[in-house]
Amino acid sequence: MRRFARTLATAALAVTVVGGSAGWASGDSQTAVTGPPPGTAAWRADTAAGRSLPDPATATPHEVAAFFAGLDDAARRDLVRSHPLVVGNLDGAPLPLRYEANRLAVTATSEARYASLAAPDRQILAFDPRGRGQVAEVFGDLERARHVSVIVPGSDNDAATHDARRKPATGPAGMARALREATGGSTGGTTAVVAWIGYTTPVGVGLDAADGRLARAGAARLARFTAGLDAVGAPDPVLFCHSYGSVVCGLAARHTDATDIVALGSPGMRAGTAAALHTGARVWAARGPSDWIADVPNVEFAGVGHGADPTSAAFGARRVPAADVQGHTGYFAPGTQSLAAFAAIAEGAAR
Fold it and tell me: Are the CB atoms for 247 and 268 separated by under 8 Å?
């Protein structure tokens, strides 16, 4: 009888998450963008220097890197001009080629909402216009960085909004800039930061945000993205995972080579404990005192809800100080304890 009562209580909490009485509102259901990038069929039908091109759907990032290493500059640039959407999204391809390819791909869309991404000073590492659009942008010198951090955001982020006007140090690009600055970006620094919106995020905080469907699709893409960083010789990354992004990171954890995984403003990571993530990374967690995520029930029932609170003692993550964080998006605000701690983690100086 007691077990039945607990099950009913859990179900009620799960319904609360979906129904919105915990402060969550209904959101529009999203279709996850998955699979190889647009233009893959034409790419596979082409050749370079008499060689077949690596299949974006099956070739590993290391295989992609080896393929490009065997081409001369002329052949590489021909592929960029002929297949910008494929090269720009091909994990393992040389970084300068991806930046150039994505500039061409963004320009080719002729869409005003993406126009700013084609500016000469932007380093766009991935761009996919399907659906609401996906993008990854680099801040700093990723080719020479000694440390790399990746910002994995949550709901309501896409290619058009990741750098939209909003409160400073919020949103994927704002968080990335703030972290880059905190690690000495204005004086050169050795840390590069990637704002990664490489998956279809939930819109609003309805059922999509309460279940793991979009997070599972995002986890596979995040794992491949980190493998791509490894293939081009970048350092093992630190993952900063905000809100629903921490669900993505939790599911991807065992498949990445991250040195650290930081969950902030997290509804749960789809694991009961940090050890259950099955990762060699150090796991950290932060939650500010006024973050509304604290009102979300930490349950998982019939696929709804994301499980244990990563900031709880039972979860076993290292705690990041966040007593001065304001709201759900204030973790990267300049001067906060959390940003100082994030910078130390990003630079490998935290213990």
Answer: yes
Question: What is the band of 27 on the pLDDT scale with cuts at 50, 70, 90?
Answer: low
In residues, how long is the chain? 351
Residues whose CB falls within 8 Å of the CB of residue 329, separated by 6 or more in sequence, listed in order:
167, 170, 171, 242, 265
Confidence of residue 254 (pLDDT cuts 50, 70, 90): very high
Q: Given a cut of 70, is residue 3 above it in pLDDT? A: no
Do residues 60 and 92 make contact, with C-beta atoms less than 8 angstroms apart? yes
- The residue assigned the tokens 């801040």 is 139
Q: How far apart are CA 84 and CA 297, in angstroms?
A: 44
Residue 143: closest CA among 192, 98, 99, 177: 192
Q: Which of 60, 9, 38 lies closest to 109, judged by CA?
A: 38
pTM: 0.92
Residue 74, Cβ density class (10 Å: 0-12 exposed, 13-18 middle, ≥19 buried): exposed
Summarised one tens digit per residue, pLDDT across range 167-195 is: 899 999 999 999 999 999 878 789 999 99
Report CA torsion sign: 150, 153, 157, 161.
Answer: negative
Q: Phi then psi for 186, rounded to 5 degrees?
A: -70, -15
What is the torsion angle, in degrees rounded to the nearest 10, for the CA atoms of residue 176, residue 182, residue 184 and residue 189?
Answer: -40
Task: Tell whether the model's pLDDT for residue 12 goes beyond 70.
Answer: no
